[in-house]
Amino acid sequence: MAVVACNAFLFKDDSRIPVVMIGDGSMTSGMVYEALNELGDIKLPVVIILNDNEMSIAKPIGAISKHLSKLLAGKFYQGIREKVDHIITNYLPEGSAYIAKRVEESIKLITPGIIFEEMGIDYIGPIDGHNIDEIIDTLQLAKDLGKPVVVHAKTTKGKGYEIAEGQNEQWHGVGAFDIETGEFKKKAGGAKSATAVYSDALLNLARKNTNVVGVTAAMPSGTGMNKLIKEFPTRFWDVAIAEQHAVTSMAAMAKEGLSPFVTIYSTFLQRGFDQIIHDVCLMNLPVTFAIDRAGIVGEDGETHHGVFDINYLRLIPNMTLFAPRDAKTLEYAVEFAYEYQTPCAIRYPRGSFDELEFEPTRFEVGKGEILKHGNSDKLFIGYGAGVSRAVSTAELCKEDIAIADLRFVKPLDENLLIELSQRYATWYIFSDSQKQGGVASAIMEFINEQNLNVEIESFEYEDKFISHGDTKMLEESLGLLPKQLAEKIYK
């Protein structure tokens, strides 16, 4: 964005200087270096504030480093350096020029900003990111340089609440807690979360099979992978905010005969889309994608809703997509994925599954399941957590309605769908996913190919972004609560 803003201002003949703030976690992402590489070349003025609260950049060398790095960016030094560069380039013999250049470079080496200096970008810092006066002075200095410059601000995560200070991931996103003690309040008698079910299932699998390996991207606690990293530190990794690398690294593991599990939130797996296609599916490597936070995620926010994974994965050749309907079938899904020798993806929601009365069954490739037959011409088809919504909606309906668990959206259970079309004329699709290219779309494609006489209605998400808010409130605003769906059916 910094490069785009610079170019936009240049195009408009605008004298404004863009200011960009990035977190130190972003320094593991390739886009940052792509932008820095261009800025180092075009030299347009921009101030990049690097908020460093987790020591992702090498530890600075105390007060001397801080003083010298600010000195190096000052007008006095900048003027001297320009003159020295001119003399070195035009007047000194080759040997003397080399020595002078080495002296200048040695000064830079005692600052933590060497990586930016080498890319042609000036560096100031580290400064105290909690000292307002120092921040203002430094930003004015950076602006006056008239070139790309990184301002390295050291901060403490959770500053102001001593209990949380420096407790990085634990306090990244919090629920209710006691403000005096900092202890988190646990919900009494709550069902085990889908994340915890998956984590325990994978841990048990890894204990039994030494070829099981895995990766997550900056969310070891959020995905439950922290347990596996702790017990098997040479087999499970957190690669930080680097989803592309996470996917490709596991492709290499699969190529060597290992059984890798890529455990990433649905919304963040989008970053590895190209790698899923070229590094995994093109070579048909047995990599399992465990997609956490599928569906609405509530307070995690609008950027975190797991809406699109079915849509963008379904179009990739060699990819198999399936989903558990409850906690036990999630355990079965992990076992199935280990035995399966083709790229596959499991999706499961944030929070816990609803308990269902149907007996959990193991997965067979491309096989769905009729959970109950009904006396009406209506059929509810659920996918993943959508099964429980189908069940809850059926309980509110006037008729005895059949319910099926699709289980696989790719490949579809074609024989089952043909059988169901001969008995039920109207199908309602329940899935926590985007409607365009989603579960109902996959079924309609098959219905049209086979020319089956079936009417389809999708209860998936409409073509718009979902805002931030409590899960139940968002579902109500989208008209997806069971009571609302039952009313829609009989309108």
In short:
This protein is of the alpha/beta class and 491 residues long.
Largest sheet: 7 strands, mixed
Tell me the strand percentage band.
15-25%
**Overall pLDDT level:** 87
Q: Segments where pLDDT lies below 50 for 5+ residues?
A: 55-61
* Helicity range: 40-55%
The CATH topology label of the largest domain is: Rossmann fold
Count of DSSP strands: 16
CATH-defined superfamily of the largest domain: Thiamin diphosphate (ThDP)-binding fold, Pyr/PP domains
Please report the first level of CATH classification, the CATH class of the largest domain: Alpha Beta
CATH architecture of the largest domain: 3-Layer(aba) Sandwich
Per DSSP, the total helix count is 19
- How large, in whole angstroms, is the Cα Rg? 28 Å
Q: Determine the structural class based on helices, strands and strand pairing.
A: alpha/beta
- Distance N terminus to C terminus? 48 Å
Main-sheet strand order equals: 6-5-7-8-10-9-14
What sort of overall outline do the alpha carbons produce when their principal axes are compared?
elongated
Number of domains: 3
